[in-house]
Amino acid sequence: MALQGAAAKHRSIRGPKATRAADPAKPMAIARPLLAWYRRHRRDLPWRMNRDPYRVWVSEIMLQQTQVERVKDFFVRFIDRFPAVESLAAASERQVLRLWEGLGYYRRARQLHAAAKRVVADHAGSFPDTAAALRELPGIGRYTAGAIASIAFGRREPILEANSRRVFARLVGHDRPVGGAADEPLWQVAAAFVPVRDPGLFNQAIMDLGAIICTPTQPQCDRCPLAGLCVARATGRIAEIPAPTPRRAATLVRETAVVIRQGDRVLVERRPAGAWWEGLWDFPLAAADDKVARGDRRLASISYTVTHHRITRRVVVRRVATAPPAGRTKRFVAIAELDRLAMTAPGRRIARLLDANG
DNA sequence: AATTCGGGGTG
DNA sequence: CACCCAGAATT
What we know:
Elements (H helix, E strand, L loop, with lengths): L1 H8 L17 H15 L11 H11 L4 H14 L3 H6 L2 H8 L6 H17 L7 H4 L7 H12 L8 H11 L11 H10 L5 H14 L18 H4 L16 E12 L2 E6 L10 E2 L14 E10 L2 E11 L10 E5 L10 H13 L1
Parallel strand pairs: 1-5
Antiparallel strand pairs: 1-2, 2-3, 2-6, 4-5
This protein binds a DNA duplex through helix 3, helix 4, helix 7, helix 9 and helix 10.
């Protein structure tokens, strides 16, 4: 045991094979115990009912930087409303965004919609079935192409995302920084391990292992089917691998939203192209030099975080006698009608305040 | 290579 | 509060 640990300590990914460490040259050494574990412990997820490429695709887009538990209900509602690529392609962007509201990264929804139209128009409604062709569609990058190609089409394609990055890094003892270009060695590890047989199940199994057993903190190595092959475990470096990536400090932002109200109607604006939450509705934000008018009533102050921006939004209500002009990007709508609009997260919080306060 | 996209859950 | 999450596109 001590011998094994000492030997593993000085082994690189392509090092000698003196011990039982994971060896990319023998993919089945990983796949066999992993798939056996997966058959018993895999998560029961709504997108795993079948291998319909459309469903796999929708789930993979929703899951980008979004946790499984959060996606479940959104996925079921979305599939219920748009059961096939044709119905999604035929929908309006407004409908798609409304179903996406609250899930975040709204560009995903617009790209999903655009890709659906392209699949219908250019591929007669059937998905491209190789990773390279899938990557031509908007919103599909290296990971998502590999996931769809392997899961829906049985292609031998690797994947690397948050779970598999951690699992593979620990498995081979990859103690260098990860993320971005630094992930390339781990892509090579993933490519070496993914088996010809059942690559889709293998990829899903790696992700489930990362989500259930090989967790970021306090992994349950005693229940891991790959524990005996894991270099990080053999060398006692589980807690240090993968190396944490430095984060940017948060920037503080202050802004003021003005609820322009006449009776039970309020003014909302659509976020312009290039702005955060492009295409979603929100209350107008006061310009930096726009003094809060006399008579404005302070309604609330809400804070929220967008990546590395910490934003405090003061909300004031300004009652007006005449309705401001409407247009494609400005609408004057009854508070009760705000439900039907796809709104930004802070905008929705304000809408709920208005609803609660009458 | 670095930045920019959300939002909620967790310790 | 810090960290995390089935990443992709843009610059």
